[in-house]
Amino acid sequence: MRKRSIVTLLALVATIARPVDAASDARPLAVFVEEDPSSLDTILNTPYGWQLAPLSQGYLFTVDDRGRLVPDMAREVPTRANGGISPDGKTIVYRIRTGRWSDGAPFDARDVAFTADALRNPATNVPDRSTVDRIVRVDATRPDRLVVRLAAPSAPFVSSFLTLGAEDPYAILPRHVAARYANLNATSLDARPVGLGPFRLERWLRGERLEFARNPFYWRGPSATDRIVVRVEPNAATRLLQARTGDLDATYVSGLQIDEARDAHLRVVRKTTSVVDYLQFDERIPAFRSPRVRDGVARAIDRDRLARTVYRGLEEPTDSGQLDAAFVPPDRLPRYDPAAARRELAGVAIDLAIAGTWRSSSEAALVIASDLNAAGATATIRSYQPSVFWAPLASGGILESGRFGVALTSWSPGLDPDRSYLFDCAARPPAGGNAGWYCDRAFDAAERRGGVTYERGARAAAYRTAHGLLVRDLPIVPLGFEISAYAVSRRFANFKPNVLGRDFWNAWEWRVTSP
């Protein structure tokens, strides 16, 4: 009788608890962005593109947590073997997955061709046209077939054209909406996006949150959860508090926040990304044209200690800007050697420019400046708002205007190993990101060899050569790859950050589970 009574009591407790669990499961998954988007059109706002757009937008390919292209609106990645790349390397053929936009309108290859033309429209303020500038012609020969003719073979094109792996990841545009505009500088898509992703925007409360509901026309079928809420919250401490109280299901954490998250029984999910932090020299300044001075700076800084103490394990020291081992050269940066650094830096004045509120920059700058001063240099830290530090040349940005001696900065590369955008002789702002004015024709030639061949082995050899030259010449001193860390609720299943930091790539798989 006693055993039966206990079983009955347990059943009653479970029955009482069930509605609470159901209510918890019914609450939409909540993720975050640090700033309210300026536009929801990825052509105009690429931060929206790599952060939020995968929730509601479609691409030819996305990128998974292992750094591989994943077919989205294209059925397969074009290769020579499957006939997607012509023998001369100038024609790329895509097999397009026809379907419906989130408003029910039909989607086909003509939408993709329209998007390519819209990106090439000089009247639209596109941040980067380097990929589409390679296009001679785009033809939607059938609803399910797109043919792109290039001016020259371009291996980076495949991972960069309308993919989440691009440096500036533009989504496919709805022709039936966007074609009515002469340019796309201001359209209804800025606030009311129409997309091909697993969700569609239901409501946008500016500065507070964006609410997404399941897209009934999504090609994979119904997403695993029916609603997503994206909270706009710039303060990391507030986000962690929201995660601890259950109002947020995932947030970035760093430093001591990792221990706080574990104490609150949240999961901590880490991912080494290809986002590389580095020191960049302005080689127009006489002191930094000297290889000895650049070598001295590299030897003065204890990069391992910086990763351990300032970034608290969320930085993976590196000698190269390539995360994929196939493209990493055997060459190594000068090792930490204060005595050698003193012989090369005595009396050198160094203006160290930083984006003060970005990722422990202020704390890192103090350590770097201390190392440089200990080596005989005179280092002065100059701190700027990130919006000013990384502003374009036309807006007087610190980097692009060359208003620095050494800059602590970062780059979020695309999936392709090509780095000509940062280091090619012709890539000086505003034509590219070569703010340090590095120029080496051998580097340019190696990058070109890697860009015109589609064979991975040949590409790897070319890029190993190119990065070996960067290690020799030291236009930058790589500090390390950023490791992203998230505090994730126990009920949030299938959250899989990817190597590019574009962590909403698989939102269709996200689901709520019982904690």
Overview of this structure, please?
By secondary structure, this protein is an alpha+beta fold. The chain folds into two domains: 30-228 and 489-512, Periplasmic binding protein-like II (D-Maltodextrin-Binding Protein, domain 2), CATH 3.40.190.10; 272-483, Dipeptide-binding Protein, Domain 3 (Dipeptide-binding Protein, domain 3). The protein has helices at 2-26, 46-51, 109-120, 155-160, 175-178, 236-245, 257-263, 286-289, 291-300, 303-310, 338-345, 361-374, 386-389, 420-423, 441-452, 456-473; strands at residues 29-33, 61-63, 69-71, 91-95, 99-100, 106-107, 135-142, 145-150, 199-205, 209-214, 227-232, 250-252, 267-281, 315-316, 349-355, 378-384, 406-411, 476-488, 492-493, 511-512. The strands form six sheets. Strands 12, 13, 14, 15, 16, 17 and 18 form a seven-stranded mixed β-sheet that branches. A hairpin with a 5-residue loop joins strand 2 (61-63) and strand 3. Helix 9 packs antiparallel against helix 11 (338-345). The longest helix is centred in the N-terminal third of the chain and has 25 residues, at 2-26. The two termini are 33 Å apart.
Briefly summarize what is shown:
The protein is α+β, with helices and mostly antiparallel strands. Helix content is 30%, strand content 21%.
Any chance you could write out the topology, listing elements then pairs?
Blueprint: H1 2-26, E1 29-33, H2 46-51, E2 61-63, E3 69-71, E4 91-95, E5 99-100, E6 106-107, H3 109-120, E7 135-142, E8 145-150, H4 155-160, H5 175-178, E9 199-205, E10 209-214, E11 227-232, H6 236-245, E12 250-252, H7 257-263, E13 267-281, H8 286-289, H9 291-300, H10 303-310, E14 315-316, H11 338-345, E15 349-355, H12 361-374, E16 378-384, H13 386-389, E17 406-411, H14 420-423, H15 441-452, H16 456-473, E18 476-488, E19 492-493, E20 511-512
Parallel strand pairs: 1-11, 15-16, 15-17
Antiparallel strand pairs: 2-3, 4-8, 5-6, 7-8, 9-10, 10-11, 12-18, 13-17, 13-18, 14-18, 19-20
Helix pairs in contact: 9-11, 15-16
